[in-house]
Design a protein that fits this description.
Radius of gyration: 25 Å
Structural class: alpha+beta
Distance between the termini: 19 Å
Strand content: 25-35%
Shape: elongated
Length: about 375
């Protein structure tokens, strides 16, 4: 039974959903095609930047629902967020599902948006907006699949699809950074500590990285060691002036002679305050700056010293945390089946359930996986 439901949901779930809510009507077939495209179709950004694309619909006939899967190169991109577009939201009730994100596989599955009732749209617009983090240089194709567009009767209309491409270019600052490998090494050590403590890994943020690098370089060149800049400004002022937005910031600094990422990391982890920043669940983004050179500090001069700056902040989460949901699991088997979904929709129509509740219920049904 589960295999059958999975097969149905992977390509035509929203149509079943509409048929469940409303009586089906016969619609004469049309010969023209509704266009579903990725926009922009080709773009280039520098490494460390965010990438934003939209899935755009140009209806050739009145439509009331759409769904798609999406694939990308996981070595180049990582999904930050998926949000609803405006194409179906003009004064009507809709149900939008952001789908299931798998950044390790480079896939987004079962994104859909459905209008409730017999409402239809004919104007072009955005179905969904997808924001990525760029992970490194390279190129990634952006591929739509399992694209289905429906009219209000639940019948699929003919579609044509236009895919896209994004190229990630190495920025001048990254190309000129002689310590990029060491910074990555330190991030790997930090994320290993977080994994061992049950925490999500940090991801590099280009703004935080730039602030951290500038501070480490300035400490070497100006022969001081302090969280405040040489001009007296605080680390939070430096971060804020960079344009990075976060409700909270933190900073760790260290220096080592001779340079050693491992030694610097161990020293920070052995310090309670620095360790607390590294393992703080209220931060999910980091910038690491390393600089090496001649350095005078504490009355002593060093020919080969390294300064290390770690800046922490909170950006938008990569994915929303999973919320357990089993209110409609009537037989308590930790699986949501089609009957459970039907009962949930009935509850919604009778004012007993919210959009959010039904959306979570459908997510569990689409996954075909036990939730407990």
């Amino acid at each position: 039974m589960n295999d059958t439901l999975k097969s149905i949901s992977s390509g035509y779930f929203f149509r079943i959903f509409l048929l469940l809510l409303f009586a089906s009507v016969l619609i004469a077939p049309v010969s023209a095609e509704t266009l579903v495209s990725i926009s922009p179709s080709d773009q280039s950004v520098t490494a460390g930047s965010t990438v934003t694309v939209v899935v755009y619909i140009e209806p050739d006939t009145p439509i009331s629902g759409a769904q798609f899967d999406f694939s990308f190169d996981s070595d180049v991109l990582s999904v930050v967020s998926i949000s609803e577009g405006e194409v179906f939201t003009n004064g009507v009730s809709t149900m939008f599902n952001e789908g299931t994100i798998d950044n390790s596989e480079g896939a987004i599955m079962n994104v859909y948006n459905v209008i409730f009732g017999k409402n239809e749209v004919t104007e072009s617009g955005t179905l969904a907006t997808i924001v990525f983090d760029s992970k490194g240089s390279g190129a990634s194709s952006l591929q739509l699949s399992n694209v289905v567009v429906s009219n209000s009767g639940g019948a699929a209309v003919p579609v044509s699809v236009v895919n896209g491409m994004v190229s990630i270019l190495v920025s001048t600052s990254s190309a000129d950074n002689p310590y990029a490998e060491e910074e990555q090494q330190m991030l790997d050590l930090i994320n290993q500590e977080r994994e061992e403590n049950g925490l999500d890994p940090y991801r590099f943020n280009s703004l935080l990285n730039s602030v951290a690098s500038d501070h480490s370089q300035e400490m070497i060149e100006k022969d001081y060691f302090n969280h405040n800049s040489y001009d007296g400004s605080s680390f939070s002022t430096r971060i804020g002036n960079s344009g990075y937005a976060s409700y909270t910031y933190a900073e760790n600094i260290a220096f080592r002679v001779p340079p050693s990422v491992v030694s610097a990391h161990e020293g920070l982890m052995n310090s309670p305050g620095h360790r607390a920043n590294i393992l703080n669940p209220n931060y999910n983004e980091i910038g690491i700056g390393i600089w090496v050179g001649e350095y005078t500090y504490g009355g002593r001069s060093y020919s080969n010293a390294a300064t290390y700056t770690q800046n922490f902040g909170w950006g938008e989460p990569v994915t929303d945390p999973a919320i357990p949901y089993n209110v409609y699991d009537k037989n308590k088997d930790c699986l949501i089946d089609f009957g459970d979904v039907s009962a949930g929709i009935d509850g919604y129509l009778n004012g007993l359930s919210s959009f959010a509740e039904i959306s979570k219920l459908i997510d569990l049904f689409l996954s075909s996986e036990p939730y407990c």
